[in-house]
Predict the structure.
Amino acid sequence: PLTVKTTGKDRVAYFYDADVGSFSYGSSHPMKPHRIRMTHSLIMNYGLYKKMEIYRAKPATKQEMCQFHSDEYIDFLSRVTPDNLEMFQKESVKFNVGDDCPVFDGLYEYCSISGGGSMEGAARLNRGKCDVAINYAGGLHHAKKAEASGFCYLNDIVLGIIELLRYHPRVLYIDIDVHHGDGVEEAFYTTDRVMTCSFHKYGEFFPGTGELRDTGVAKGKNYSVNVPLRDGIDDATYKSVFEPVIGKIMEWYQPSAIVLQCGGDSLSGDRLGCFNLSMRGHANCVSYVKSFGIPTLVVGGGGYTMRNVARTWAFETGLLNNVILDEELPYNDYYEYYGPDYQLDVRPSNMFNVNTPEYLDKVLTGIFTNLESTKF
Ligand code: TV7
Ligand code: CA
Ligand code: ZN
């Protein structure tokens, strides 16, 4: 296999729990934990186990979850089941479980796996045991302190960042999911110890937040960056925004750790998304972040066309290990999902790119003006 430019800081710790793929939000629900198992099968059959250390994290405990979430909310998540749901009517409304965030069998266990991977990944980075930690069961960026939202119950990212803050003075959070990373932004909106930067579709799209002018409050003023985008953004256009914005933030903020949310719903052909990124366009964000050689926690997130999420996360895992995966897919447990071509690539479509150069120029200028007004 081809090898890419290395930074000499390439020890990868990959967190995977074999149980995660069996949880189900319900057959008609677009969120499918099974895609994490599909990703894992591709990763293993490409031979990446020879390059990185593979761990099953200890599931997050109640006490760990409550470093961010409220006791009552976590208590509710640990008690509610599809069978006793009728006894929790009042709580279900209060904590926003329902259609987007259904109560399913094993919900609490699923949350503890997702949270455990991000927390243990962060802890390994803290101890200098690895340079990159990966948890594709994480990335659930909408969960709030005492509320489920947008398929997310436990905010594994916030928990991972809290762990990183024990050793790192400044943590940068980058979010390339097509949706706004509202839960992470909100958790750190008033602090300068975490800078958040989300790229997302904005305008008549869930969750409705993430305007250019939402930049943080009090000590956190200008430490939240939002990059609102329109339908159909392609690889070249995304790169022309992502690299200057992240490059500038790296220069100004100089984080000592990074968390990268790799939501796969910004890919072309996603069931819920509306962007037009190819696998390589999406992965360019991972390469660019990796090029800074700073300890990085990589988490999953959205992604609703399962075969494309698995392809892209496998390819990105290759990149993080300095390997360019072969275009021919290896035989794997879910080979039939990848027909008729059985190739690795996720290709862009001919959809129209509504992001005009004038619009993007306005967005970039706005972001740079905010950053330059900040005294670090
Ligand atoms: C990180 N879009 C999460 C993204 C969360 C998006 C939404 C659905 C949806 C839910 C379903 C379903 C769906 C085809 C799509 C305003 C509503 C409209 C619920 C039906 N099919 C991430 C959340 C978003 C649930 N929610 O960033 C069961 O689409 O737009 C909304 C809210 C009210 C609730 N209804 C949808 O990627 C992981 N939901 C089918 C069955
Ligand atoms: Ca985003
Ligand atoms: Zn999303």
The pocket of calcium ion (ligand 2) is lined by residues 175-177, 179-181, 198-200 (CB under 6 Å). Residues 137 and 193 are 25 Å apart (CA to CA). The two ends are 43 Å apart (CA to CA).
